[in-house]
C-alpha cells in the first residue's frame, strides 16, 4: 500500500469524531448567532415602530390643528356672509326708490369721473 494513503486514512479515522463535534458545535454556534441577529433585527424593528408611532402622533396633532383652523375660517366666512347679506339688502333698498336711485347715479358718476381723471393724470 501507499504510505500516504494510509496516513490520510489514519487522519480521517483520528479526526472523524472531532469534526462531527466541531460541526455540531458550529451548528449550535450558528444557531446562537442567528438568535442574536434576530434579536438585533427585532430591536431595529421596535425602533422603527416607535419612530412611526411618534410620526403618526405628530401627523394627528397637525391634522387637529388644521381642523381647528378650518373651523375658525368657516365661522369667519359665515359671519362675513351675514354682513354681506345685510349690505346687499340695504343696496337693494336704495335701488327701489327713485330718489335713492338718483343719489346712487350721482355718486357713481363722481366715482367714474374721479377714476378717469386719475388715470389721465398718471
UniProtKB/TrEMBL annotation:
The chain crosses the membrane at residues 103-121. GO terms for biological process: protein transport; vesicle-mediated transport. Residues 32-94 form the T-SNARE coiled-coil homology domain. The lineage of its organism: Eukaryota, Viridiplantae, Streptophyta, Embryophyta, Tracheophyta. Keywords: Coiled coil, Endoplasmic reticulum, ER-Golgi transport, Golgi apparatus, Membrane, Protein transport, Transmembrane, Transmembrane helix, Transport. Required for vesicular transport from the ER to the Golgi complex. Functions as a SNARE associated with ER-derived vesicles. Belongs to the BET1 family. The keyword NAD does not apply. InterPro entries: BET1_SNARE, T_SNARE_dom. It is a single-pass type IV membrane protein. It is found in: Endoplasmic reticulum membrane; Golgi apparatus membrane. Its main location: endoplasmic reticulum. GO terms for cellular component: endoplasmic reticulum membrane; Golgi membrane. It comes from Hibiscus syriacus (Rose of Sharon). This is Bet1-like SNARE 1-2. It comes from the Eukaryota.
Amino acid at each position: 500500500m501507499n504510505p500516504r494513503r494510509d496516513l490520510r486514512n489514519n487522519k480521517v479515522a483520528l479526526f472523524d469524531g472531532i469534526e462531527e463535534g466541531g460541526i455540531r458545535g458550529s451548528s449550535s454556534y450558528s444557531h446562537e448567532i442567528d438568535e442574536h441577529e434576530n434579536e438585533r433585527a427585532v430591536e431595529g424593528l421596535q425602533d422603527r415602530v416607535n419612530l412611526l408611532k411618534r410620526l403618526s402622533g405628530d401627523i394627528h396633532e397637525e391634522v387637529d390643528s388644521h381642523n381647528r383652523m378650518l373651523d375658525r375660517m368657516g365661522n369667519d366666512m359665515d359671519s362675513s356672509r351675514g354682513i354681506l347679506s345685510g349690505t346687499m339688502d340695504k343696496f337693494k333698498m336704495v335701488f327701489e326708490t327713485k330718489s335713492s336711485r338718483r343719489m346712487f347715479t350721482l355718486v357713481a358718476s363722481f366715482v367714474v369721473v374721479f377714476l378717469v381723471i386719475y388715470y389721465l393724470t398718471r
